[in-house]
């Protein structure tokens, strides 16, 4: 979801390896395997990243990552913060207002 369109949900499914930033979800047994694939264009480069997360039914995960982009013509900087909230199974409507069961914070200082 994006702020510019009023946070309208968008769903898309792709087969194969993602070519850009994406989230890979795989159902394994009674868990969901979640892997965040960061964009190749954002800075700083992240050479050491957290592994994929296994999320059991009834739990939720918050994964945050930020980027800095440079405009190719003007050199202006653009900053982006992605916050991914994923719940596995039926949850109350206000679940994302509570503390997550698992949290990954990949935010870095962007100068």
Task: Give a verbal description of the structure.
The chain is an all-beta fold and 111 residues long. It has one domain. It contains no helices and 6 strands. It has strands spanning 22-28, 31-37, 53-56, 60-70, 77-87, 102-106. The strands form 2 sheets. Strands 1-2-3 form a 3-stranded antiparallel β-sheet, with no helix packed on it. It has a 3-stranded mixed β-sheet with strand order 5-4-6, with no helix packed on it. Strand 1 (22-28) and strand 2 (31-37) form a beta hairpin.
What's the main sheet like? 3 strands, antiparallel
Output the helix-strand order: EEEEEE
β-strand percent reads: 35-45%
Strand order of the largest sheet: 1-2-3
Query: Which descriptor suits the 3D outline?
Result: globular
Provide the gyration radius in Å. Answer: 15 Å
- Residue stretches low in confidence (pLDDT < 50, at least 5 long) are none
Quick rundown:
This protein has 111 residues and is an all-beta fold. It has strands at 22-28, 31-37, 53-56, 60-70, 77-87, 102-106. The chain contains no helices and 6 strands.
Break the fold down into its secondary structure elements and pairings.
Elements: E1 22-28, E2 31-37, E3 53-56, E4 60-70, E5 77-87, E6 102-106
Parallel strand pairs: 4-6
Antiparallel strand pairs: 1-2, 2-3, 4-5
């Amino acid at each position: 979801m994006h702020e510019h369109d009023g946070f309208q949900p968008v769903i898309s499914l792709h087969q194969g390896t993602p070519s850009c930033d994406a989230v890979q979800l795989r159902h394994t047994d009674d868990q969901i395997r979640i892997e965040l694939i960061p964009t190749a264009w954002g800075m700083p480069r992240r050479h050491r990243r957290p592994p994929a997360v296994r999320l059991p039914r009834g739990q939720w995960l918050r994964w945050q990552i930020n980027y800095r982009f440079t405009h190719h013509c003007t050199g202006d900087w653009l900053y982006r913060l992605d916050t991914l909230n994923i719940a596995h199974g039926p949850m109350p409507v206000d679940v994302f207002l509570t503390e997550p069961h698992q949290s990954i914070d990949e935010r870095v200082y962007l100068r």
